[in-house]
Amino acid sequence: MVTLNDQTALVTGAARGIGKSIALKLADAGANVVVADVLKDEVEAVAKELEGKGVKAIPATADISSADQVAEMIKLAVEETGRLDILVNNAGITRDGLLMRMSEEDWDLVININLKGAALCTRAAAKVMFKKKSGRIINISSVIALMGNAGQANYAASKAGIIGLTRAMSKELGPRGVTVNAIAPGFIDTAMTQALPDEVRKQYQQRIPLGRFGTPEEVGDLVLFLASDAAKYITGQVIAVDGGMTTH
User: Fold this and answer.
1) Is residue 196 part of a domain?
2) Residue 248 has pLDDT above 80, yes or no
3) Which of 52, 58, 79, 159 could form a disulfide with 142 if both were Cys (CB 3.0 to 4.6 A apart)?
4) For residues 125 and 113, what is the distance between their CA atoms, to the nearest angstrom?
5) b/e for 139-158, b at 16 or more Cβ within 10 A?
6) Is 164 within 8 Å of 236 (Cβ atoms)?
7) Is residue 3 part of a domain?
8) Do residues 178 and 137 lie in contact, with contact meaning Cβ atoms separated by under 8 Å?
9) Does 204 participate in catalysis according to the annotation?
10) Which pairs count as long-range contacts for 119-124, CB under 8 Å and 24+ apart, including other chains?
């Protein structure tokens, strides 16, 4: 069983969906968790849920596309727990549409949150981890970064950028004992995919060798592994959690 007792993890986009499941997994393993999102009420509700597991949970309402807000979030984590061991860059949004019709605003918003936000969080967290010569940074990319998808050029570009960021930072931070890896989820059973028409869900499932969507908990299981000592010699990797979809 993985134990992260006394460690501190910061999870962005932790108010719901995959991010919340990741926060729950880390708390179950004994980690104190900074629950970060722009959704203040939901952040506080998740923090209370985590505290029920006997760990310290710190709600942090922050826009990760703002360097100042990211700096304050990292400062809060260190002030409240005295350390920062794990960063999970999960926060992300979509603004779908064909590129030739896409507004500049929709392009910038997705890039700023999904990619710039992850970079800002990584930069701020790395300063803490660099000093203590240890740490785990886990970036949530997407299989869309690996295979593309019509109508999601901005999202695909942002998540492909996450892969490049992961590999570059693994080289920069590896000499100081900090690992940096990425997870590329496929179709995961969240509110977003549940809203798809049944026929569309069926078509997607037919492209998945395991014949079903994944669960947020299955993504959280991999985060837990990568955050643990069992993964201490793994860095710069991109691991798909997609039921085999990208093997086609």
Assistant:
1) yes
2) no
3) 159
4) 17
5) bbbbbbbbeeeeebbbbbbb
6) no
7) no
8) yes
9) no
10) 119/165, 120/64, 120/65, 120/66, 120/67, 120/70, 121/10, 121/12, 121/64, 121/70, 121/73, 121/74, 121/87, 121/89, 122/87, 122/89, 122/165, 122/169, 122/180, 124/70, 124/71, 124/73, 124/74
- Catalytic pick among 8, 36, 122, 155: 155
Tokens standing for residue 215: 């669960």
Q: Has residue 172 been placed in a domain?
A: yes
Tokens of residue 241, six digits: 């959690």
pLDDT in tens, 87-130: 999 999 999 999 999 999 999 999 999 999 999 999 999 999 99
Number of folded domains in the chain? 1
pTM score of the predicted model: 0.96
Indicate which CATH number applies to the domain containing 158: 3.40.50.720
Residue 197 is predicted with a pLDDT of 85
Residue 18 in domain: yes
Domain of residue 88 covers 8-239
